[in-house]
Write a structure and sequence with these properties.
mainly alpha, Arc Repressor Mutant, subunit A, 2 domains, single chain, Rna Polymerase Sigma Factor, Chain: A
């Protein structure tokens, strides 16, 4: 991809559609994967990704490369949109599966996968009860695979605070769900 800073300036100054297309194409698959890891639903992940990029385009004029890298800024938007999604949906939404469209593994693996998906959904709902800052730290660490230093930089919190919030949430998750996960 061309120099990302140059592409962003073209979008900010001229609303350049070609530059916009280049920027979105560069990050699209990565953001879809990030949203999918947190929703376990491809259609929802794609809808969220569309909303993330719309929000990015509406606010790109305010993006300042001195504050954060573009990728970090985009992930901040993505994380906030995903938190909003989880907050808005309240109770767990169950997806109906068409059995003709899935390859069913052996019965033991199938049951373990269902249990894992259910537990993942319940953990997501549980984490959704926390303040947006703690949710953001959790999602960036687990789904974005960022380091504590990177998360501290993104959230403008001391690294020790990020670690404290993350490990406190993990402790609470273990207390809440510890006896339910078997591998």
């Amino acid at each position: 991809m061309q120099d990302e800073k140059h592409i962003i300036r073209r979008i900010q100054k001229h609303g350049d559609h070609t530059a916009t297309d280049l920027l979105i194409r560069n990050y699209y698959d990565e953001i879809v994967a990030y949203a999918y890891k947190q929703t376990n639903d491809r259609e929802i992940a794609m809808d969220l990704t569309q909303n993330i990029f719309i929000s990015m385009l509406h606010t790109i004029a305010r993006y300042d490369e001195r504050q954060a890298s573009f990728r970090t800024w985009l992930y901040k938007i993505a994380t906030n949109k995903i938190i909003d999604y989880h907050r808005s949906r309240g109770a767990i939404r169950y997806k109906t599966l068409d059995l003709d469209e899935i390859d069913i593994p052996d019965e033991t693996d199938f049951v373990l996968n269902l249990e894992h998906e259910d537990l993942t959904a319940r953990i997501g709902t549980y984490v959704g009860r926390y303040d947006a800052g703690t949710q953001r730290i959790f999602r960036l660490k687990i789904f974005g695979e960022y380091t504590f230093a990177e998360i501290a930089n993104m959230t403008k919190m001391p690294e020790a605070t990020v670690k404290t919030k993350y490990y406190r949430l993990l402790k609470n998750l273990k207390e809440e769900f510890g006896n339910e996960y078997h591998t």
